[in-house]
Specification:
The complex is a heterodimer of chains A (about 110) and B (about 110). Chain A has about 110 residues and is mainly beta. Chain A has strands at about 5, 10-15, 20-25, 30-35, 45-50, 55, 65-70, 75-80, 85-95, 105, 110-114. In chain A, the strands form two sheets. In chain A, strands 2, 4, 5, 6, 9, 10 and 11 form a seven-stranded mixed beta sheet that branches. In chain A, strands 1-3-8-7 form a four-stranded antiparallel beta sheet, with no helix packed on it. The relative contact order of chain A is 0.33. The chains are: A mainly beta (about 110), B mainly beta (about 110).
């Protein structure tokens, strides 16, 4: 069984640029959630995708957007990067057929904005 | 809205000593509770979860946690820690299909 994978591992961008992060779900999972983890903080929910549609969103501006593909992989896009966007971005997949939301996390993408 | 408070940002402990990491939550409905561990430069790994039933939950690596509804707490314990337990620990709460809300984390520092 393949776990959740993310690419790239690290990324350096400059302020104002755009970035795309990618996530492959664990086999058999149909839901993907994205989290931002700033240094020294717990992960914060960005949004969740289920059946290729956004299914919930945290307190993040519209310049954070996403996609989920038919194979349940996902992308996180961030436009007009700001210094505060520097963080570890975590992707988590789950199977939405249970009462609870057990999520399996990938290793993350470390984004640095200069 | 749900929230999680981890009362200690850092917990230093000697190897083979017991440890307790504290977690309190607030929610207006029934919740599911989780503890995750994060080793340096890695993602989150699930240690244990409380869904229903017995309030004492056992997880991996010898950790356990007790759900206390009246005190809205879900403290994590281990009777004897190892150097390899040094990591960041996150408590999280979920309301059904909703997403996870995390605490700010507790850094467990185990020294010889």
């Amino acid at each position: 069984e393949t776990g959740v994978t993310q690419s790239p591992t690290h990324l350096i961008k400059t302020r104002g640029q755009q970035v795309t992060l990618r996530c492959s779900s664990q086999s058999g999972h149909n839901t993907v959630s994205w989290y931002q983890q700033a240094l020294g903080q717990g992960p914060q929910f960005i949004f969740q995708y289920y059946r290729e549609e956004e299914n919930g969103r945290g307190n993040f501006p519209p310049r954070f957007s996403g996609l989920q593909f038919p194979n349940y992989s996902s992308e996180l896009n961030v436009n007009a990067l700001e210094l505060d966007d520097s963080a570890l971005y975590l992707c988590a997949s789950s199977l939405r057929d249970r009462e609870y939301n057990e999520q399996f996390f990938g290793p993350g993408t470390r984004l640095t904005v200069l | 809205a749900q929230s999680v408070t981890q009362l200690d940002s850092q917990v230093p402990v000697f190897e083979e000593a017991p440890v307790e990491l504290r977690c309190n939550y607030s929610s207006s409905v029934s919740v599911y509770l989780f503890w995750y561990v994060q080793y340096p430069n890695q993602g989150l790994q699930l240690l244990l979860k409380y869904l229903s039933g017995s309030t004492l939950v056992k997880g991996i690596n010898g950790f356990e946690a007790e759900f206390n509804k009246s005190q809205t707490s879900f403290h994590l314990r281990k009777p004897s820690v190892h150097i390899s337990d040094t990591a960041e620990y996150f408590c999280a709460v979920s309301e059904g299909y909703s997403t996870l809300t995390f605490g700010k984390g507790t850094m467990l520092l185990v020294s010889p």
